[in-house]
């Protein structure tokens, strides 16, 4: 697992899964599994912006970019490459 | 000291008042919770007042671009009659002169004091009000179910009771649905600075994301209730039809100065009355005390503690004010009022 994924995984587990990491796979949908709700999405964005020093644009806030560890990894790799 | 009369748990964060029963909480050797430690780390890199100023510029720019472009209203505001949503109506009208539609969900528990405040404020500011009142046959089973059972995810229940989550879910959907139907480009909420992070204070809503969130919320309800509540949610076809018309959500209180006493003082000048002043048993929503009590009994922490702890941490509220809000007993008469009404 690369660094980006590890960092996000740790954040999700600490903040939304309360330490229980059993069911968190790379393709687990945060929204559909109820791990993150609509306020949680906002907190996730806050975390990404501070942690990776990026700005997440409004049109980037879509499930395709944010709704699993794999999607986040792809999204962040793309943003950081810019 | 007044805090002697409160039910303060043995283990509680030395700074922000989150209790040891809060999900996932960890304390360091100084008695600080992990959320407070995180804030100390991040405040070294970010400057809140600069952020706030930037958001005000962003709102100015957004208003400049959108004001007057819609047929009738520039903004729809979810309006409870409480101090926060009343205050944003005042801000948006007086500072931006927007054409505002205030929308209220009458969930059958809106207090007479709140109704009066809604009339006073919207008259004073010359704002249209739209009240939607689902029939008791739809509201009663929703509140009875959520009073007895937690149907939402653990994360959601960290920040709100089941009763409030169901009700707010409907408010958000109806407001957005109305915005789409009436081509209103802005949606305003009076979220306090403790309720949502500042980063999201101005955000263009995304159809895909809303659709997914809504699906999860609706699927939390049992089938029979789903059928009763379906019409308050956004129809699937809207996500395509109105794809290009999804509005910007704004939470102005995240970036305007927030001071409860000042807000109340300003509103009182307009004839708004604080529910506590008119009747000690009053609040805006008369199911709130019962909702809190159900949550505390099931989870061991107050459903508002996340929001209040955030505000204590941001120095918007004193620790003592926070303790009083969170660790006082729920008003017994209010609890019985709601309980009995739900039996009728
Ligand atoms: Zn704390």
From TrEMBL, chain A:
Occurrences of domain Carrier (ranges): 1-80
InterPro entries on file: ACP-like_sf, PP-bd_ACP
PROSITE patterns in alphabetical order: CARRIER
Alphabetical list of Gene3D superfamilies matching this protein: ACP-like
Protein name (database record): Acyl carrier protein
Organism: Desulfocicer vacuolatum DSM 3385
Lineage start: Bacteria, Pseudomonadati, Thermodesulfobacteriota, Desulfobacteria, Desulfobacterales
From TrEMBL, chain B:
Source superkingdom: Bacteria
Family annotation (Gene3D superfamilies): HUPs (3.40.50.620)
Name of the molecule in the record: Uncharacterized protein
Organism: Desulfocicer vacuolatum DSM 3385
